[in-house]
Amino acid sequence: MIEAVGLTKRYGKTLAVNNLSFSVAGGEVTGFLGPNGAGKSTTMRMILGLDNPTSGQVRIGGKLYRELKEPLRTVGALLDAKWVHPNRSARAHLQWMAKSNKIPAARVDEVLETVGLTSVAGKRAGGFSLGMSQRLGIAAALLGDPEVLLFDEPVNGLDPEGILWIRKFMHRLADDGRTVFVSSHLLSEMALTASQLVVIGKGQLISQSSTEDFVSRAAENTVKVRSPQLPALRTVLSQASAQVAEDGKALVVSGLDSEKIGEIAAANQIVLHELSPQTGSLEQAFMQITGDSVEYHTGLETEAAEVVAAGQ
Ligand SMILES: Nc1ncnc2c1ncn2[C@@H]1O[C@H](COP(=O)(O)OP(=O)(O)OP(=O)(O)O)[C@@H](O)[C@H]1O
Predict the structure, then answer these.
(1) From the UniProt record, which GO molecular function terms apply (predicted)?
(2) What's the pLDDT score for residue 52?
(3) What is residue 38's three-state secondary structure?
(4) What does the pLDDT look like over 243-283, one tens digit per residue?
(5) CATH 3.20.20 matches 222-278
(6) H helices, E strands: number in the chain
(7) Residue 117, class by beta-carbon neighbours within 10 Å (0-12 exposed, 13-18 middle, 19+ buried)?
(8) What is the per-residue pLDDT across 227-248, written as a single tens digit (0 to 9) for each?
(9) Is the CB–ligand 1 distance for residue 36 below 6 Å?
(10) Which atom of ligand 1 is nearest to the CA of 39?
């Protein structure tokens, strides 16, 4: 369990994190989503005691990081996968970490096995691919068998196989009952990985909810209806207080679900050729909700929104 209350971090004139409160529960993967520069890494560093909040606080299992007696046994983190001594082997790197944290040496081979690095454990970590480095970073995070795991942009730069591996691995950790908090600006990836979302923009909380709720709340849910009797259908739907727009030979209806629309059409003996709910995507929801919170507008956001809209 992670609990942030009024968490704030100021760097000179930059308010990187602004009065942020949220909580992350065990047994689920929680995504930490926000545009570039939103304050995700700063928040993660404060959770891990690597940066001090200007005000507010964040607790792990009820304790501040500095109050944890053996931090690695409570919380493990993958912040920067390339943070290893390049000439050390994977095993030597983990042995050094285990020793300095009073973790039994036998645990090293266990975590190497867990992340699938046993066969390359004796090789120089400096020669590892990004995917292997990520696995080594995850092995390090798991050394103390912690209840809480933080991953900062873990799939950045990975190939599809590496992305799939990380996604499945996170689900496994959550299924064990652990608290898994993972930051990303990749929305589609988060939709597949996380069942809960904490969304921030410009350092402030935008939303905390299930991924499902986030999408359905933000993206407009409409129903596309085609009929040879469009004018009559339009009239009866408007009378039922639906908002009706015309899109070529179809109507786009909001304010009524497809069941209700079908019933109204049947009651009025109107033939339907199509009745299809149009659900918004996570991308649309994200654009809509964080639109005003993107720190540096490049025009790409609008372009991306148009691409998403055109694909619907
Ligand atoms: N050490 C620092 N000194 C000064 N400003 C900083 C420092 N660290 C972060 N910032 C600023 O704080 C804001 C939040 O940065 P942060 O890296 O936390 O965002 P982020 O959401 O992780 O972004 P990204 O997705 O690009 O990694 C940015 O404006 C950044 O420039």
Answers:
(1) ATP binding; ATP hydrolysis activity
(2) 95
(3) coil
(4) 998 888 899 998 898 999 999 999 999 999 999 988 666 66
(5) no
(6) 12, 13
(7) buried
(8) 999 999 999 999 998 999 888 8
(9) yes
(10) 18
Q: State in Å: Cα 289 to ligand 1 middle.
A: 20
Q: Is 34 in the pocket of ligand 1 (CB under 6 A)?
A: yes
The residue contributing the CA closest to ligand 1 atom 8 is: 42
Cite the residue boundaries of each domain of the chain with CATH code 3.30.70.
222-278
Q: Could you tell me which residues are beta bridge partners of residue 49? A: none
Residue 75 near residue 62 (C-beta atoms within 8 A): no
Angle between helices 230-239 and 258-267 (to 10 degrees): 110
The pLDDT score that the predictor gives to residue 173 is 94
Task: List the beta bridge partners of residue 24.
Answer: 2
Share of the chain above pLDDT 90, in %: 54
CATH superfamily label, 2-216: P-loop containing nucleotide triphosphate hydrolases (3.40.50.300)
Ligand 1 atom at minimal distance to the Cα of residue 38: 21
Model pLDDT, residue 104: 92
Q: Quick one: tokens of 294?
A: 């993107």
Which residues make up the CATH 3.40.50.300 domain(s) of the chain?
Answer: 2-216
Is the C-beta atom of 30 inside 6 A of ligand 1?
Answer: no
> In whole angstroms, what is the distance from residue 291 CA to residue 288 CA?
5
Please state the φ and ψ torsions of residue 203, each to the nearest 5 degrees: 80, -5
- Mean pLDDT calculated for residue range 79-92: 78
